[in-house]
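Q: How would the structure tokens look for this protein?
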Amino acid sequence: MKRFGAGAGASRLVSGSLAPFHELEETLAAFKKTEAALSFSTGYAAAIGTICALLGKSDIIIIDKLVHACIVDAARLSGATLRVFDHNDLEDLEKILLWTSKISLPRYAPRERFVHTRVLIVTESIFSMDGDAAPLREIVALKNKYGAWLMVDEAHATGIIGKNGRGLADALGVAGEIDIQMGTLGKALGSSGGYICGSRVLIDFLVNSARSFIFSTAPVPAAAAAATAAIRLVQSPEGRALNKHLWKQVKTFHSALRIPHSAMASAIIPLIIGNEAKAVGASSKLRAQNIFIPAIRYPTVARGRARLRVTITAAHKPEDISHVAFALNNNSDHWPRPLDP
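A: Here is the predicted structure in token form.
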């Protein structure tokens, strides 16, 4: 704050490209093992700017049914033909990819007669509302088979999954085959903003084409510096100890609520209630017991799929987990018991 002030003062391409942003992007690229990285003011801006820069009306975007709203909005704004595959359904995804291989949507360009249609698959690695994992190895195999691009949002995996918290793609050994790695700096990293990691060609293109980057005032410099510090912390002995503690707490919570450990994909545990009013009521009752579990309802999730979204963090103590589990087990009249194996 003393060195760079409370704000950047302008967009990055005018006069707002300050040292903390460059340091963050170098740290992100090294962390994710990519050639380059680009930071955005929010994850929403990262998705909108990237997808709309890469795709146009003669292209095709294929998204998982449960991807974040920012990806849905970006897909619609891009003008590309939008197709949605059932959540984590590889057969449905391949049916759509097979369809794309049989159609032709040539795009006229000034110096070229036609440019081939581009196909982009977008999924999350850990889904924000359900906490489950995408079958990334199989999706990578399909994108290679059909010549598509793949964009993966690692917002809820970065910092907690994989070696040194690099994410699910790294943990599964497929990070190098993902064309566009997206994430946020406001989850496990505790700061704010979004990022894209990938090839140098991709990042240079986005710098000059992503409108949410070009025409936005740069983020708060202190937030960028905090994100850089967080990435370094995640990879340190202290960070690894926090990560180990987190997963221990997740396992303890699963045991207390009799959730099978085989379902332990992330630190996000949804308790499906269904009815929106009941979900809000259950959340309010827990809040009266000094427990904050947000009620997630339409439009964040589908109608009739309201839920309590439990998120375990490394800051939680064993007594916190016991307190929450006791309260949930003794107030089960507010929700059905999908918690039993």
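The chain has two domains: 12-234, 237-334.

Confidence is low (pLDDT under 50) at residues 108-114, 335-341.

Upvote if useful.
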